[in-house]
């Protein structure tokens, strides 16, 4: 068999072509890979190195930044903002700038008025906020001649009664209904009325009876006997 017949048989059987050169195929494949975008050997090395670095990283933040503190929730932030609110005589109203005077003896200041009996004025932490710190309240009473302050008692405070002008009859009854005091009280005299004890005052026939009552609660509650 001659050379020409051998070449024809190799072509028909899918063998090597005439231009085939052993050892050049792998070189051509490398050249084609280098010509493809993003497929160079150096690029592949960079990708491999980047993957290894990501695996070695412990977290999103580097060691230089250090651990971050957890951010407080919205509820905690609102509670922090609301801590300074609602304080009684705190930063909002200091002792130096607080109102410390109230004219409860003025007739226009009366809370209750009866043209035949007299008038009553009260002061507490609502009308004079500084009394909240002192936990005190006061009641100013003017009884006209023969005027009567109906039987009443203080639910949450003891009372200290001090006569300013005139004289009046004062009667105090304890929780059992027994009279513990029944006498005349004149200008300059003082009487203590315990909590929940019923008291009644009546002015004399000659002049009005004026007195003030200090209470040991800035929000004293007074109930009348019906």
Automatic annotation (TrEMBL):
Keywords noted in UniProt: Disulfide bond, Seed storage protein, Storage protein
Region (Disordered): 1-89
The Cupin type-1 domain, residue ranges: 102-226
Coiled coil: none
Keyword Disulfide bond attached: yes
InterPro entries the record matches: 11S_seedstore_CS, 11S_seedstore_pln, Cupin_1, RmlC-like_jellyroll, RmlC_Cupin_sf, Seed_Storage-Functional
Gene3D superfamilies per the UniProt record, alphabetical: Jelly Rolls (2.60.120.10)
Disulfide bond recorded as keyword: yes
Amino acid composition bias (Basic and acidic residues), ranges on this chain: 43-84
Transmembrane segments: none
Molecular-function GO terms, alphabetical: nutrient reservoir activity
Pfam families: Cupin_1 (PF00190)
Stated role: This protein found in the seeds of many leguminous and non-leguminous plants is the source of sulfur-containing amino acids in seed meals. Seed storage protein.
Subunit structure: Hexamer; each subunit is composed of an acidic and a basic chain derived from a single precursor and linked by a disulfide bond.
Record-stated family: Belongs to the 11S seed storage protein (globulins) family.
Name of this chain's protein: Putative 11-S seed storage protein, plant
Annotated source species: Medicago truncatula
């Amino acid at each position: 068999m001659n050379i020409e017949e051998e070449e024809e048989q190799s072509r028909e059987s899918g063998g090597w072509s005439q231009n085939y050169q052993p050892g050049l195929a792998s070189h051509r494949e490398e050249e084609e890979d280098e010509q493809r975008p993003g497929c160079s050997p150096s690029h592949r090395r960079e990708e491999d190195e980047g993957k290894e670095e990501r695996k070695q990283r412990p977290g999103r933040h580097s060691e230089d930044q250090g651990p971050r503190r957890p951010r407080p929730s919205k509820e905690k932030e609102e509670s922090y903002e609301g801590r300074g609110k609602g304080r009684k005589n705190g930063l909002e109203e200091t002792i130096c700038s607080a109102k410390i005077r109230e004219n409860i003896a003025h007739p226009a200041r009366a809370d209750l008025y009866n043209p035949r009996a007299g008038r009553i004025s009260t002061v507490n932490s609502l009308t004079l906020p500084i009394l909240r710190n002192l936990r005190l309240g006061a009641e100013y009473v003017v009884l006209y001649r023969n005027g009567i302050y109906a039987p009443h008692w203080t639910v949450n405070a003891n009372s200290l009664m001090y006569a300013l002008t005139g004289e009046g009859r004062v009667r105090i009854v304890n929780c059992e209904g027994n009279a513990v005091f029944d006498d005349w009280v004149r200008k300059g005299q003082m009487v203590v009325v315990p909590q929940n004890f019923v008291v009644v005052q009546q002015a004399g026939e000659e002049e009005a009876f004026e007195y003030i009552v200090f209470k040991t609660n800035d929000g004293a509650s007074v109930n009348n006997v019906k």
